[in-house]
Amino acid sequence: MKVAVCIKQVPAKDAPLQITDSGAWIRETDIGFEMNEPDSFALEEALRLKEKHGGEVVALSMGPQRTKQVIKEALAKGADRGIHLEDDKFFLLDPLSSAKSIAAALKKDNFDLILTGLQSDDQGFGQTGVLLAELLGLAHATIIMQIELQGQRLKLKRELESGWFQWVELPLPAVLTIQSGINKVRYASLKGIMAAKKKEIAVIMRESLGIAGEPTQRVERIYVPQKAKRTEFIDGSPKEAAAKLLEKLRHEARVL
Known about the structure:
This protein has 256 residues and is an alpha/beta fold. The chain has one domain: HUPs (Rossmann fold, 3-Layer(aba) Sandwich). 27% of the residues lie in helices and 26% in strands. The chain has 6 helices and 11 strands. The chain has helices at residues 37-53, 68-77, 95-106, 128-136, 190-196, 238-251; strands at residues 2-6, 9-11, 33-35, 56-63, 81-86, 113-117, 139-150, 153-159, 165-171, 174-178, 201-205. The strands form 2 sheets. The protein has a 9-stranded mixed β-sheet, sandwiched between helices. The chain has a two-stranded antiparallel sheet with strand order 2-3. α3 crosses α4.
């Protein structure tokens, strides 16, 4: 089985974020980066499928030079080779443009299975994996909590709302978006780290793929929510005060 895993490098959870002067993104200097958490579960699932059924795991990531770090991490954990879609301005792409770029890079390899995390920790669109499947013309399923390979078909457990789950079947090849918590993510061993130094990372300049066009959406502004405290006294009889309080909870606080 030939499996591709799309992984994204995102700002570390404990990184002190500062917004740029334009207000459209964060300052990337002097902060740490890490592998997107849902993508780490997707990588682990790919490695487990390889260990059980054989084959190859290819880790793909898009971004500037620093993005190679998460590819090397994937290789150290057991991926066989990596693909780096290099682009210094990748954060300006919308999910459709990102999916088009990834599809162009993966199309020629004829993968049996393509895994992505459910969404990214930084922007959280949750669209790229589904768009990728549509562009490649492959079957897809989202929010996957369990994968069973049965010949040339997949039996999948999907997480729904309110604690419900759904079992579905798909033919191969397919694209799946993986939910966090599907497995227990492994650490890279010293042997794996040393072996990763000899593994191939193919570099593809994103602009060479010929993916152009204006984004269909863009980030106008990001900001830190302002916290404020305010005390308000409600006058009137207990019945009148209760009615006013109920009205404020419904239409101002919107907690009811």
